[in-house]
UniProtKB/TrEMBL annotation:
Catalytic reaction list: a 3-oxosteroid + A = a 3-oxo-Delta(1)-steroid + AH2
Organism: Paractinoplanes toevensis
Swiss-Prot/TrEMBL cofactor(s): FAD
Name of the molecule in the record: 3-oxosteroid 1-dehydrogenase
GO biological process, one term: steroid metabolic process
Family the UniProt entry places it in: Belongs to the FAD-dependent oxidoreductase 2 family. 3-oxosteroid dehydrogenase subfamily.
NCBIfam families the UniProt entry points to: PRK07843.1
KW Flavoprotein (keyword) present: yes
Location of the FAD-dependent oxidoreductase 2 FAD-binding domain: 9-513
One term of GO molecular function: 3-oxosteroid 1-dehydrogenase activity
Length: 528
């Protein structure tokens, strides 16, 4: 970079969705912008994600006829942990942000039909759902930037491009005609010479294409070492040199899920169970804190029960909802509705005796996809050798690490509920959300099936996460605040570097990315 190019109107730290939308919006408001990314690839956790966006009232939902009182619903979900001003700012700007992205990138989006809000029975909640996802994106549109796109969390076999809608049906194995049709369609897509990007890969790549068109530089391998402050105002970023910002600096550098010290300090656990991007080590949070910024929700994360497989855990979505399984704690007793939203499931795990176990039978293994393994597919020997999976001919034999008598009694009671189709203890299957990943052919409750056919399995479950959700306190314009509520001039934050507008909960699929992109957009508008 030349000396003349070391000053911009807007400097963005982080190349995830929040940062790229902010830089793109700044450019289209006539401001010069630059994106700094410490990794050698762009996209961060956005590229690793499912790519879903929870954005009530947007034009894609309106066209699909999806309406509802999103203000009442978000107030119920976020509670007192996010100010009404921030909630309203998000809901007001979300449709405008999505229209902007559609107009200035090659991205288009589709409603994920029937994927419910996570609390569809709450005031304003929708069983039909408000989540949208990127349509498959032609990889040729990305040009040279395809080579530096961050890898997905877990690539589909053969690099087949899978959408969120596809995953729902694939999880059912061969139990439903749509499962078979979906698998056949994906195989055909994989045979095509035209490579398609889906989910978070499509979102990150499409935003990067928009930045290239707008002439916004993205510097990879350029970590921020600190913020520059002059006369009480943030005026730039230190890297190997100084990059000045005339209008402001946006921190979009992700959470602190990969920072062992911060996780131990705020959450009492390490980094081994997160699937967040490796570069998310809390740099932006620490930089803001050094300037006196307030922090919120540092004990929270975008939690999800996970199986500790290999080098990183497997984040379970459908596995807990399908019939023929249940979760127990270290005493052999159920402690949660297994099909509950994943953040709630982990809150219950953290309050229960650990470790937790997912108990299943052979019928379950014969029918459904499990941790990426097809029905009837033999499970890796290392799973059993590592102690994360156990198999036995009887429940009593299975319970080597828990109370065998309690486990047998728990499964017996559960099987009684399965026969009647109603879970009197934890109400599994009562919510439309529970049933989304259930088995439509399981009657009368798509989430409840008996655990009775040997051999039986126990899979260790850990409190994994998609990333942390606590960080810098911000206002409705994404400005970073001090504990007394005053603004740190020139400093903005969006995404997981900031405390989530969802508070301690989770409105629906895409409730991480939807607000992140929206507050990035609002930050750019404020700087303009």
């Amino acid at each position: 970079m030349s000396k003349a190019a070391e000053e911009f109107d807007v400097v963005v730290v982080g190349s995830g969705g929040a940062g790229m939308v902010a830089a793109l919006a700044a450019a289209h408001h006539g401001l010069s912008a630059i994106v700094l990314e410490k990794a050698e690839s762009y996209g961060g956790s956005t590229a690793r994600s499912g790519g879903g966006l929870w954005l009530p009232g947007n034009e894609v939902l309106t066209k699909a006829g999806v309406t509802g009182d999103a203000h009442a619903y978000l107030a119920h979900v976020a509670g007192p942990d996010a100010t009404p001003a921030r909630q309203n700012a998000f809901l007001s700007a979300a449709p405008e942000m999505l229209a902007f992205v559609r107009a200035h990138t090659p991205l288009d989006f589709a409603w994920v039909p029937g994927y419910p809000d996570y609390y569809p029975e709450a005031p304003g909640g929708l069983a039909s759902g408000r989540s949208i996802e990127p349509r498959p994106l032609d990889a040729r549109l990305i040009g040279p930037d395809l080579a530096t796109l961050a890898a997905p969390y877990r690539a589909a076999p053969g690099s087949i491009a899978v959408t969120q809608v596809d995953y729902r049906w694939l999880s059912l194995g061969v139990r439903h005609p749509r499962s078979i049709l979906t698998a056949a369609r994906l195989v055909a897509r994989g045979l095509s010479r035209k490579r398609k990007l889906t989910m978070g890969q499509a979102l990150a790549a499409g935003l990067r294409a928009g930045l290239r068109r707008a002439g916004v530089p993205v510097l990879l391998g350029t970590p921020m070492t600190d913020l520059v402050v002059e006369d009480g105002r943030v005026t730039g970023v230190r890297t190997t040199g100084v990059i000045s910002a005339r209008r402001g600096v946006l921190l979009a550098s992700g959470g602190f899920e990969q920072n062992e010290t911060m996780r131990q300090k705020y959450q009492g656990m390490g980094t081994e169970w997160t699937v967040g991007a490796k570069g998310n080590t809390g740099d932006g949070i620490e930089a803001g804190e050094r300037l006196g910024a307030a922090l919120d929700l540092m004990d929270e994360a975008w939690w999800g029960p996970s199986i500790p497989v290999g080098r990183e855990p497997y984040f379970c979505l459908a596995e807990r909802n399908q019939p023929g399984c249940l979760m127990v704690d270290a005493t052999g007793r159920r402690f949660v509705n297994e099909a509950a939203p994943y953040v709630d499931a982990v809150h219950a795990m953290l309050a229960a005796p650990q470790p937790a176990w997912l108990i299943a039978d052979q019928t379950y293994r014969n029918r459904y996809l499990f941790a990426g393994r097809g029905p009837r597919t033999p499970l890796p020997r290392r799973w059993f050798d590592d102690g994360m999976a156990h198999r036995a001919g009887t429940l009593a034999e299975l319970a080597a690490r828990i109370d065998a008598e309690a486990l047998v009694a728990t499964v017996g009671r559960f099987n009684g509920f399965a026969a009647g189709g109603r879970d009197d203890d934890f109400h599994r299957g009562d919510s439309a959300y529970d049933r989304y990943y259930g088995d439509p052919r399981q009657r009368p409750n798509p989430c409840l099936g008996p655990v009775g056919k040997p051999p039986f399995y126990a899979f260790r479950m850990v409190p994994g996460d998609l990333g942390t959700k606590g960080g810098l306190r911000t206002d409705e314009r994404a400005r970073v605040l001090r504990p007394d509520g005053t603004v740190i001039p020139g400093l903005y934050a969006a995404g997981n570097v900031s405390a989530a507008v969802m508070g301690r909960s989770y409105a629906g699929a895409g409730a991480t990315l939807g607000p992140a992109l929206t507050f990035g957009y609002l930050a750019a508008k404020d700087m303009a």
